[in-house]
Amino acid sequence: MTRISRLSFYTKSDVRQLITILKEFILIFIPKGKNLTARVVIPKSSLDRYAADKYLYKNFHLEQRVKLQRNLLNSKFINQIVILWRILIPRVYSKNSSLLLTQCLFLILRTWLSLIIAKLDGQIVKNLISANGKKFARDLIYWILIAFPASYTNAAIKYLTNRLSLGFRTNLIRYIHDMYLDRVMTYYKILLNLDDIENIDQYITNDVAKFCDSICGLFSSMGKPFIDLVFFSVYLRDTLGTGAIVGIFANYFLTALVLKRFTPPFGKLSSQRTHLEGNYYNQHLNLITNSEEVAFYKGSLIEKAKLRETFDSLMQHVSKEVNYSFTYSALEDYVLKYTWSAWGYVFAGLPVFLEDLWPRVPTDHIDEGEAPPAFSPQNVPVDENQNMRQFIINKRLLLSLADAGSRLMYSIKDISDLTGYTDRVFTLLTNLHMTHSPTYSFRSRYGPSDISGTIQKNYDGGVRFENIPVIIPRKDGSDGEILVKNLNFQLLRENTLLILGPNGCGKTSIGRIMAGLWPLYYGLLSKPSDDEIFYLPQKTYFTNGNLRDQIIYPSSYDEMLANGYNDDHLYHILREVKLDYLLTREGNFNVKKDWKDVFSGGEKQRMSIARVLYKNPKFVVLDESTNAVSTDIEDYLFELLQNKNIAFITFSHRPLLMKYHDYVLEIKKGTNKDGWVFHDLTSEENLKTIDNEIHDIESKLARIEEWEGRIQEIESFLDGKNDNIGESHLNLEEAILFEF
Known about the structure:
disordered N terminus; Rossmann fold; ABC transporter transmembrane region fold; ABC transporter domain-containing protein; long-chain fatty acid transmembrane transporter activity; 4 domains; 6-stranded mixed beta sheet; 13 strands; alpha/beta; 4-stranded mixed beta sheet
């Protein structure tokens, strides 16, 4: 797991030199002011750590089943907390450990201060009843003075709770990000496994924060009462006796059983509410993302109905929670606030009433004829002031003890909520580990994977497919739907390939296998290193940032400077893709806008080509990346890539693009048993075939006027305006039908 080890500030000019110093760290540059950049140094993640943790989550479900079968005392919640604790506090000597230890010390200090305040409260009441003004003033000054450390202690506990929550959340989020955003592309693959987890953004942004706040708040709300119980019980045992303390704890135990018996399933309810809130949020997000499409379709009514249905489901669940909470809160308040307070008064008054019923007997021997000693019960009057003082102390401590016990009982609901948050976070981490594993089985929960394909990287011979099937990743594994069978071809570095076929035939799926998004169930895929191949998806993605960020994506500005590039280089790239007018239209490279709404379709695709020129790879995969530009611009862009010696693999349904390529992989049902044909466009035989196809197309185009005239005659005949149709026209009609 990663952690921040250094935070420094440097000027922009220093960034290039400082980046090359530490190669074993991940560097994050955060702008600070106009001329400063904060360089955050984070150690690289330990892959061994995640490989070891994988078995904790993988074996968790199996161990749970075994324990349940053996009827052993088992707590799923505690086992999950133990595993998550390795992430929250990875080492004994860490920042979070120090915060936790400091919070424990402050909790003990607050209990000790509460004991002093209770004694001081009793002393003040005693002085007030005895009309001792001097001691009353003295104790009042003590009261004011002790308020300073007491107030500081209360504030420190709240501060440490918040800081500890931030520390836990930081460790947990970094652990999640290390697996969620990496070269394995878990963020994409996990979307294919929605049987166990939905709305993963809700899990990461909302549930993790609630889990950290809940566990830290629970530690504070349970730690202080537990310490109070120990300290106050020891003190009260000397004044009330062991029997009273046993009675108090028996009352606690009985109350816990009653409340546990009538406690609703708050954990399950909380988990369901979070799920419904995520659905409602995503429904709004979907409307915002696709607002233009919905507006064109005039789909306001159906979208409103969906939103209302989602909101009503959420409100029904919240109403159910409110009803449960009302009944439980009434029982909880009656037992904890009033019943326990009554018992507190009973136990606080025991020393006074027991003194009257069973007076103390002196232990010293009295000889016959001697006068009774001064402390004899017959001669010592009852000290009402002392009794009042002791009663106030006992009352305050017993009420504090009752409050401590009640807060522990109140924590039952908090523990129930924490159980729901813990289960959701644990489910998230389990799915991340499943997806992050090299043997991840798509949509298969815990069964063995049948992914046996081999991927050879850093291949110098270009791109090679050997007996590779294109299978939609599902829980059926290799028995799922096959789009293309046994792909076999090789493309050298200096050659270009057009993968041609209709929509839905599996063109883009081939690119997904090349990029590692889909599994290679069997066969051999040989390809260059990831730095030498660049992928352009059908839909161009624009990041949140300025115009410069759109060109250099996925690189950062500081990485651009480290590579020796500047804005002049970017301007040259814009000129090459004929987008240099953007600087005049938008202002400069630093302007920030919602670029997906600013750029037109053609500008988006030319911006994608600009990213290729900035990256300058050996290979680029183009998935319908030029279908929105004009024909002359399309010709220019392909020639530009050829002049840059960038080999390209193009996915398209347009045969007109064959003129830019050396080979064609045609995916078409019925061509052969595997559903594909590989053509070499550079051979004479294929060139003749292409010429024949062009000649046939030109012949058909030359007869368009004749066919249009015949269509008009047929329409006239159908309308009853012309009853005479010659045989030649019928033959022409048959010819038209045959051609199409």
